């Protein structure tokens, strides 16, 4: 007997060990019939386990918060320890500073050698990893970075596939997977945007480099794309099974909800393709500008997708995408203000003189329109407005 053929599908399914909240069929849709085992599960929030979605959202955000708190605590201890060393050593002779010549923790040198600064394999993670002399596949993370990535990506996969595998109705299963993957994609967009910004407040607070943030940004972006694709496929499976591909085409072209979701999916997949290292390194300026345009399309489509759902007030994730876009807009605005402040004054704009040198090196001499306090050993990311021959 098919449980979902009964006329009254309850919103709460209880068992001896657990209670799972499952949304019942949405009767506001005319295509939903009480005898259907497919139709309810590609419309509205039918079959979506929203209680578990919110639970895993909290778990993922708490995981990130705890990691940031641990790093902040370590950085504060390092600052205090360095200050104690400075105060104790500044007033004594050099020969009396022997205490500070060796590590005070016997395990620290081994931790730095084998974990903190160690490459993943024998390849230095700061050097490019190539399949051939012409094809670069990016840089390998360090062992510490890899441990963080494996833990974070592993938690995403765990949360995504904690589903009701005993469900005999595969379309109800797809609905639950659709809700979970879409929810996690929005959850991951929050750290994705925070880690992407050059004005990221975590960089000075946690004393981590922009390169580390960028590494985490790239990998979180890849998991977001995977979750978005799974979200779309899970919806399409039930829709095609019930009404065929012609219905899918009409839903994409004739409705804001499905149309915006499809366009957003296409945008993030294109972002993944054009961010491949071999393309990104060869055409970085093109990559960067295209990346910003595609990100704008993806965010706007996600907002429209969440707002146009048949749920009163939109999907629960609507407030998240609003916060994500606010963070993204604030970062873009801060970049514009910072660029204008550093490169423009009443005397004009910054200009550069580029001189070719031996060894495929170019010396760039910048003439700034105002005084800038540039510390020794710093570096700059340069973008050129145009070229004067």
Automatic annotation (TrEMBL):
Keyword list, A-Z: Ion transport, Membrane, Transmembrane, Transmembrane helix, Transport
Alphabetized Pfam families for the sequence: Ferric_reduct
GO function terms (MF aspect): ferric-chelate reductase activity
This protein's record includes keyword Oxidoreductase: no
Provenance organism: Fusarium oxysporum NRRL 32931
Cellular compartments annotated: Membrane
Domain Ferric oxidoreductase span(s) in chain numbering: 182-301
Membrane-crossing residue ranges in chain numbering: 59-81, 144-162, 219-240, 252-274, 286-305, 311-330
Protein name: Ferric oxidoreductase domain-containing protein
Biological process terms in GO annotation: copper ion import; intracellular iron ion homeostasis; iron ion transport
GO cellular component: plasma membrane
Membrane topology recorded in Swiss-Prot or TrEMBL: Multi-pass membrane protein
Keyword Membrane appears in the UniProt entry: yes
